[in-house]
Write a structure and sequence with these properties.
Length: 366
């Protein structure tokens, strides 16, 4: 098999860690000797042990003289465990193939340098584009000090998310909803605005998929005026719940949610809303690399207005609600088409009775 084929294997292994290993990157490693896979691993729950450690342990003595395929440069710094680059040297690996250099200042080429200084052949950049997509959250946190943001919209054919009375369950069918749960599972955090939390009182947990680890549930509520009784409050013990609020939030509300087990964090307000950029920075500082935003309309607009959406996933249902229905995105203040946020289509497919399309910011804006 070629280097590209073995790297595809390593990348597939690495994806198993998405949503489960933050703040660390989700890495995959495959060790090949004599044309046979002798060890494989991926970053484990909570970020330790690293993929290379798992694969080397599985390979044992067979790692000597072997080739290791790693989806990200092996780490070079001492943390809770020794550097993976040094572990590969000690194991006698003869060749290392990687997809990307790690931009973390503690690594940034030093892992590759350790390997080369030990006489190990190093090949880099194999399936780099795929690796960058997989590592988008980790790269964003390191290079932009904010997590990658996926915005999910589930709308009717005319772009509505609820009837005039606010009825929204369910716009899309069960297959689309199951797909959304899988997407939640592959992100570190699920994020909604306070308006959606008040209107829907959602649990935001992953259900029906045997999940043994829940994403962090994040609600941006400026006044922290959330229902103190209902599904959200009752589900605090089901997974981490972070409530981001402004200085207007009353002390008794903060105390009540804290007593329930939620984490309350104050965020600056800009233009009457929580500062979206600062909010994401707070999440990054707490280790979050991948955020799955599920609305509502005003909060989605605040992210789109300042270019903070990295991926837009749109589910379309075969219904029409008309002008009196609630729009999927709040006011953007767009006066000309050239000023509208623009996205390029990446993928589209049928999900049960609905459609799903994936979009990313267009290289050509304006």
């Amino acid at each position: 098999m070629s280097d590209a084929a073995h790297m595809a294997h390593a990348l597939a292994l690495g994806r198993r860690g998405l949503g489960r290993v933050w703040p660390n990157p989700a890495v995959g490693c495959v060790i090949v000797a004599g044309g046979r896979v002798v060890g494989r691993g991926w970053t484990q729950e909570g970020g330790r042990p690293h993929a290379e450690t798992v694969a080397l342990a599985q390979a044992g003595a067979a790692a000597r003289g072997a080739t290791a395929y790693v989806s990200l440069e092996p780490c070079a710094h001492y943390g809770r465990t020794p550097p993976c680059a040094e572990a590969m040297v000690a194991a006698g690996v003869a060749r290392v193939v990687t997809a990307l250099e790690d931009p973390d200042p503690r690594v940034a080429g030093r892992g590759h340098a350790i390997l080369r200084e030990a006489g190990i052949e190093v090949v880099t950049g194999v399936r780099a584009a795929e690796a960058r997509r997989d590592q988008a959250g980790f790269l964003s946190r390191v290079l932009r000090q904010r997590p990658m943001v996926t915005l999910k919209l589930a709308t009717t054919l005319d772009g509505r998310i609820a009837t005039a009375s606010g009825e929204s369950r369910w716009i899309t069918g069960p297959d689309a909803r199951r797909t959304v749960h899988a997407m939640r599972l592959s992100h570190d955090a699920v994020l909604i605005g306070g308006g959606t939390a008040r209107a829907d009182d959602p649990r935001l947990t992953v259900r029906g998929m045997g999940a043994d680890r829940q994403p962090v549930r994040v609600i941006a509520a400026r006044k922290l005026d959330l229902p103190s009784e209902g599904d959200l409050a009752a589900s605090v013990g089901e997974g981490p719940l972070w409530l981001l609020h402004g200085s207007e939030a009353r002390d008794d509300r903060i105390a009540a949610w804290t007593d329930l087990g939620a984490t309350c964090v104050e965020v600056p307000v800009a233009g009457g809303y929580l500062d979206a950029g600062y909010l994401l920075q707070v999440l990054a500082e707490r280790g979050i690399t991948r955020v799955f935003c599920e609305g509502g309309g005003s909060f989605a607009a605040s992210l789109l207005q300042v270019g903070l959406v990295d991926r837009l996933v749109s589910f379309g249902a075969g219904r029409v609600l008309g002008a009196e229905g609630w729009p999927a995105v709040g006011a953007l203040g767009v006066d000309a088409l050239s000023a509208a946020p623009r996205f390029a289509l990446v993928e589209t497919r049928r999900i049960g009775a609905d459609t799903m399309s994936v979009w990313e910011p267009s290289a050509k804006q304006g």
